[in-house]
Amino acid sequence: MSVQQCLITGGAGFIGSHLAETLIKMGEGVVVIDDLSTGRWENISHLKGKKGFRFVRESILNKAVLKKLIEGCNVIYHLAAAVGVKFIIDNPLKSMEINIKGTENVAELASKEKKKVLFTSTSEIYGKKERRRLKEDDDRILGTTKIARWSYSCTKAADEFLLLAYHRQKGLPVVIMRLFNTCGPRQVGDYGMVIPRLRKQALSGDPMTVYGDGKQTRSFTYITDVIEAMIALMNHPWAVGEIFNVGSEEGITILTLAKKIKALSKSKSKIVLIPYEEAYEKGFEDMRHRIPDLSKIRKFINYAPKVNLDEMLRRIVS
After folding, report:
1. pLDDT tens digits, 126-145
2. How far apart are CA 201 and CA 245, in angstroms?
3. Domain for residue 11, yes or no?
4. What is the pLDDT of residues 187-246, one digit of tens each?
């Protein structure tokens, strides 16, 4: 089997670095492009000098550099994006530029070269949908444009529309996956990610802050399960032009999650409830439930998470 050259945009981020590491272990060639605005060199520094690995510190907004990299690759894992609720609220213009213009650059250049693209979208797409199990073809329910957090959902939806339009009109081979709270080593809580934030607070003895009433339900997926699904979808010929939820159907309230992390870390920290407006911005809105229906991805690649929540937390917290 010939070696593939894989381009990973945002490859120095939490998920991208694990993908790069896995592909290198598989014997694939990997080029990472990342401007290190939210990604970190430490995530991929251990890959320096590995056969087939190359790092380019640059933004996907630099179309000239991106063009050369796409010309030299076989497939593109497009992960580069503004990430985390806090980052989106604090940097609304930059977030929209990266998510929309950056994806437009990838789509246009990949289409010209007929290079396959796997795009990581988000469960934020579903907005305030109250359905307990979210399906890929569900309607979307969003809040007012005056609430900045909904801009992320809208930009990622625009990316999906754009990539699917390139697929239909120009034949771009694209696969879209919507991620539901991936977690694992190298993830940081700087941009609003809940497990690393609660872990850090528990280990330092600081109050463990839970937003709202803590009864909102979420599901969490370990990084190895996500990477396995990502590579399988990229290599599945019938996945082209399709959208897939990738996550876990094992739900938990955030308050219960905090209690589990506190117990595992043997922390004496107090768990405190913080109003959303105090944590983020005035008028902030959140989703009550965000758990995926995984029936579609099971049919395509027989996907089933191997790491359950309790094991996941033991690996991360202990």
Report:
1. 998 777 799 999 999 998 89
2. 30
3. yes
4. 887 766 899 999 999 999 999 999 999 999 999 999 999 999 999 999 999 999 999 999
pTM of the model: 0.94
Q: How many residues does the chain have?
A: 318
- Total Cβ atoms within 10 A of residue 209: 18
Q: With the CA atoms of 109, 114, 115 and 117 taken in that order, what torsion angle do they form, in degrees rounded to the nearest 10?
A: 80
d(CA 94, CA 84): 13
**Domain encompassing residue 81:** 5-183+220-249+291-305
Count the domains in the chain.
1
DSSP tag of 98: I
Query: Going along the chain, which residue ranges are E strands?
Result: 5-9, 29-34, 53-57, 75-78, 116-122, 174-179, 182-183, 208-211, 217-219, 221-222, 243-246, 251-253, 271-274, 289-290
Which residue is catalytic, options 77, 126, 152, 211? 152
DSSP lists the bridge partners of residue 112 as: none
d(CA 309, CA 276): 25
Contact 177, 237 (CB under 8 A): no
Instruction: Round to whole Å and give the CA distance between 142 and 136.
Output: 16
CATH number of the domain that residue 140 is part of: 3.40.50.720
Active site residue 152: yes
